[in-house]
Amino acid sequence: MTETAQALGSTGRGALRLAAYALWTVTLIPVQAVAVALKRPLRHRLPVFYHRACARLMGLDVVVRGQRATEGPVLFVSNHSSYLDITVLGSVIPGSFIAKTEVAGWPFFGLLAKLQRTVFVERKARTEVGKQRDDIGARLESGDSLILFPEGTSSDGNRTLPFKTALFAVASRRIAGKALTVQPVSVTPTRLDGIPMGIAFRPFYAWYGDMDLAPHLWQAFKLGGMTVEVEFHPPVTIDGFSSRKAIAEHCQRAVSQGVVRAVTGRHDAPALVEPQKAIA
């Protein structure tokens, strides 16, 4: 069997990983449930610990570039190509996700989302934008950092879709008198067992369109080690922009350029977004 064939799947490896993942998850569910119910500080720390272990169990090597903003609550905005982004970002960011309401009803994964205190939003209901903005704002004002996928759907991983601006309205919030920190983040799968993924292999990570979840998830458990690069771009605030549309477009450019750098391996390529709009 060639190295490429081995990288693309081993049933035995998949079974072991799935069993380990299930045992690890079932063990921690009641711990997190109690922490959330009692509002203990552990409810913030345990998800990061959980996702880091899950990343190792699934053979995900998460490579971090740049510096994560750590002062005050932060709205992290990222591209989105797979449910695996949850594990990847969850392993490096202590925060909760913003997800579409349908996720709350998913078997098993809906429970995990609720235990990570996900904020659920109805992306298609324009009449709910104000309430959703207030719900997100309340969480930020309480000190929680949140992770937003502003593309509104998952992509094929080879490009970054335009960012929807509606939920960027929360960027105008001031927390303790200061403008909310917004940090763009790029997530890019780059290698499969050391082999550059390219367009041909990236769908093994990316889950989009009409792909069925169960077969894709099983394939992910069977795969060899995957390298996923996470790049934290300079944080910004609404104070450096004329509108929420302008800050959304800035974040989209920063994330898109980060994906291109990761795909091409040109990490020394200069950023083209306006540096004066980053927080000093």
From TrEMBL:
Residues 74-190 form the Phospholipid/glycerol acyltransferase domain. The chain crosses the membrane at residues 18-38. The keyword DNA-binding does not apply. CDD domains: LPLAT_AGPAT-like. GO terms for biological process: phosphatidic acid biosynthetic process. SUPFAM superfamilies: Glycerol-3-phosphate (1)-acyltransferase. InterPro entries: Plipid/glycerol_acylTrfase. Pathway: Lipid metabolism. Keywords: Acyltransferase, Lipid biosynthesis, Lipid metabolism, Membrane, Transferase, Transmembrane, Transmembrane helix. One of its GO terms (molecular function) is 1-acylglycerol-3-phosphate O-acyltransferase activity. The keyword Glycosyltransferase does not apply. SMART domains: PlsC. This is 1-acyl-sn-glycerol-3-phosphate acyltransferase.
